[in-house]
């Protein structure tokens, strides 16, 4: 199976879906002539022309709103935000219009639109450009939210998102664009709302998604050396959330650690931890642990910014805690 | 046609308005939007504009008067128009409203209170009377003693413990207080229960299975409450459904068949499977699977009386009675004959979990073609159960306990014995049919391999 | 006047009277607590929605507006019954009781709402025009908003986008002079809003928003430009609202005289007067029209009153599409 990058997987998904359906078009800052700020849209302008690949001015609220209108009128826009940090300017259109138009019109409209771009901490970017904002979207009924962590999932979920008749927010990651993984040549979709067990184990369930998958996988290796078999559940979709896969794992292992690079307050991670406590209460041998980013804005200094984020060492410590291991 | 001018809410919280001044008089012509009057609301003086064009035919509420929202204050229409009917209608609408105003209640008696003594008692402050009335007035018992470890833990006489440890201890009949904890601040955790070699707590009996119908431990024990309380409890929807369905069922001609089963092979086999597979298959899943296998050999057991016909069902859909805090429900695992024990167990776990949370859908608890009720957990030796329609039979399982048994070599041996009772509807199942089924089920329980042959 | 036939003029007059009467009824029913929440009435501004929509072809054109949306839905031809029922929150409402006053929608009539966030409809309408341009279907989108919306970033971002992409959109600012309780002159760098499109190379014009025919003519011209050359237009329609911003507005910020002065310019009176003078309307015809709109609105109120509340299970319906 070919090994490609996360960036190439997203590019292939856009290319295939734009080829498949003339109603699909891409708009955003630098998506055309510049080939994308992170090169996700590389070559698409040449292939599909300026009708299908629209370079926008730096007006997140404006072009996001245009996407909402175009979707209401029957097109299938893919709106690229250069990063989710800038998408805060467009949040009114996402929350008040894209997510609610169907409900407040009594079901008269569908809203087939994708909002995508990098989310979460990167490196040396400081507080305004390095933050995980998924809770803002995961909180809103009427949206779907996906956060693929591998090239395979990125391609399959973006294709599903483009074909979905609802607004879907796709959370990518600046540092993940260069990650590599196996992606089949033949067409496939990854369903929205289905988690994936990335590693099987019997002693503890580590529930995570997006970029922290990598530190969790590192931690699992370290734990294996200590004789602890960790099961890794990659949520992949944050809304809808595949609760059953999470519960099945926790019922098996009786211990849960949730790893989320958001801040800890009112986050996807804290919600998942609550769900487990609520629905697996009798099966828990220890309180659910949450490894989140530290509750501070992101500092510029590298040593500090690493300390602010989940790490393999933090995950290992949390696992030991739920296993009552003191070694 | 004349238009009724009604008092309207001129502020969001206004309930009643007072006319501070009329700006028109009867006979004046008004345009839509023209000022009719000023109304003092709870907040401010607001202007009331005419919603219509026309002539003021009648003013019913003079300045200074108040009206509730919706009451008629004026009529606008064409000059000379007859508005008698309209006024009459308004007067009629106002009258019953006035009549319906309840008299000021002076110390209304409490509804359904205990009618002890004279009328004065009902409104007297609850003193501390002596005698029988004290029973009725006794304060609720302090919760701590009755709720055992369902209450707050970690302070006072109970140790900290994980939910899983409490469940495991409950399943094994162990008192969590007697198990030393090795977790943080002495928390009793799974390894402590699993490694515990002490004696079960008094009053406990070895349970029939890990996922046997569970109730909070407090309910399984005689609660140490200081007194009883007389009270009438409202009948919940679930309680009413139980009463109705089982009442209907009791009208069927029942007969009962009893048998005693040596459980050693099955218990050992289950322990071996659970140890090797790392699974925790409940005993009930085995009962359901083996009952389904026995039913395959006696399909008449799996039937419904339909007056003109008898329906023999094509799948064995087994309902398992599960106790809830306020009733009973029988989640149904479909086609137990076609499923493995672990599949049945997995489905059962989901259904029971959902049943406890009150989220079972009707199709998940109705239509059982056969049912099982297991009270082994309560130390019940044997009992009879009432048939759960539309099924024709229900199997009642008692506890499994060690008993001396006289072997074929006339030697006394200790065996794990369970007693079971089959209740049959004689309209569909004859005595010999029920007996043959129960015999085969007994043999399968004693030698599970038989189910395969 | 001569160039308009009688039937067309009657249609305009009828539609404005229907809106006026619908709003009066809605106000009454709000007072009787049949309607809750925010209720923004359109009295005084009827000529704009009616004149503009009369210039459109709703088989391919679209209309969007803000929260003062009753008049636009009625002008687009939505039956008053589901609209009144929506105000009552009934299941028969145009939005199944989920939207209320600010969220009228009628997909069939190409009326895309009804938006409760000031100026949020401006980028959306521009996006609808983007879809029309993408499909080259010859359609035009008309976007209404108030003087309060014009300083939002959404307005300025949208005009720029519409111009760089040549989108067939007509922006109509209904300047009723009061953004809630704030006079537009206090919060605008320019009094003449028609200048607002200049920075984006979009021609701006002012039109008398109390004159339904003037509005009709301006929109007709703009729609033709948009269809022919895909050019956006910006119009400022000068108007005045008779009622408070919403029902709980005591209107201490303006005088009764000011309102009365504007009522002399009433759009219904103006057209009625002109038609009578032009021999296109008799007194009887006017009274017949009045009776007709009254009956229609009474019927709508009866329909709303007797309709069912939404069943509780509808709570979770229409959150997501399949």
Provide an overview of this structure:
By secondary structure, chain A is of the alpha/beta class. Chain A has 2 domains: 3-182, Thiamin diphosphate (ThDP)-binding fold, Pyr/PP domains (Rossmann fold); 196-322, Rossmann fold (3-Layer(aba) Sandwich), CATH 3.40.50.920. Chain A is built from 14 helices and 14 strands. In chain A, the strands form 3 sheets. A 7-stranded mixed β-sheet of chain A has the order 3-2-4-5-7-6-12, with helices on both faces. In chain A, strands 9-11-10-13-14 form a 5-stranded mixed β-sheet, with helices on both faces. In chain A, helix 12 links the parallel strand 13 and strand 14. In chain A, helix 10 crosses helix 14 and helix 11 (243-253) crosses helix 12 (268-279). Chain A starts with a strand and ends in a 5-residue tail after the last helix. The mean pLDDT of chain A is 97. In chain B, strands 9-18-17-16-12-15 form a 6-stranded mixed β-sheet. In chain B, helix 10 crosses helix 11 and helix 10 (283-297) crosses helix 13 (431-446). In chain B, a hairpin with a 2-residue loop joins strand 10 and strand 11. Chain B has 13 helices and 18 strands. By secondary structure, chain B is an alpha+beta fold. The termini of chain B are far apart. Chain C has 322 residues and is of the alpha/beta class. Chain C has a single domain, classed as Thiamin diphosphate (ThDP)-binding fold, Pyr/PP domains (Rossmann fold). In chain C, 44% of the residues lie in helices and 10% in strands. Chain C has helices spanning 6-31, 46-54, 70-75, 80-87, 121-135, 153-164, 184-187, 212-229, 256-263, 267-277, 283-306, and strands at residues 62-64, 141-146, 169-175, 178-179, 182-183, 204-208, 233-238. In chain C, helix 1 crosses helix 2 (46-54) and helix 1 (6-31) packs antiparallel against helix 10. The radius of gyration of chain C is 19 Å and the shape is globular. The A-C interface holds A 25, 51, 54, 56-57, 59, 61-75, 77, 92-93, 96-97, 101-111, 141-142, 144, 165-166 and C 62, 64, 93-99, 103, 105-107, 112-117, 120, 122-132, 134, 153-154, 157-158, 160-161, 164-165, 317-322.
